Amino acid sequence: MIAALRNPDRVVRHVLATENVAEKLEESAGKGGLTVVGREDIERNLEPGAVHQGVAAQVEPLPSKAVEDIISQTANNKQVTVIALDQASDPRNVGAILRSAAAFGAVALLQQDRHAPPVTGAMAKAASGGLEHVTMVYVPNIVRALRQLKESEFWIVGLDGLADTVLGTSALPDRCCLVLGAEGSGLRRLTREECDLAVKIPIHKAVDSLNLSNAAAVALYELNRR
Length: 226
Description:
Elements: H1 2-6, E1 12-17, H2 19-25, E2 34-36, H3 39-44, E3 55-59, H4 67-73, E4 80-86, H5 91-103, E5 108-112, H6 121-127, E6 135-139, H7 142-151, E7 155-159, E8 165-166, E9 175-181, H8 189-193, E10 197-200, H9 212-224
Parallel strand pairs: 1-2, 4-5, 4-9, 5-6, 7-9, 7-10, 8-10
Antiparallel strand pairs: 1-3
């Protein structure tokens, strides 16, 4: 929440907070206005079952950006990490990936607009501020977006449990787009074919696979070490 309030690009309409939380937020929440309320008042303004910590905010979506914007923004950066999700559907997973992306310095997260969850309170909570630090880019076609990145000297690295190369055993490029597939089904064939390199995370044979957000965190950590 504080990350959203401090983000100059985020338009905050209003903040609701319990008395205890309001004291901690007064300075940051000034640009949107702050109302002290009870927990039940906050819950009435959230989706059913939403978990909160005594605060909720009404905000405007961040300005939309395109792949071209990310390419232009990073043109002079020697080392860049971008993430692309190939039809991941769980907003909490996407939020957790955004949190790891922010922690390990990724600049953007790409998703195909027809098969991606919208930004919700659940996603924002799971992201823990990641939404304010990692640019979300919705594209009409994920394969076309990967080709645009390749033309701008990004390597496309797919995370695939069936890959021959183990993550961490080969050098990774400085300008890299990490591609992860959907929960369960993984990368689609056309997306996999666009990858310059496919890697897998070595895990114990007692477990078939990692949760998508956990796999993203491991891969992002390894990319951050290059």
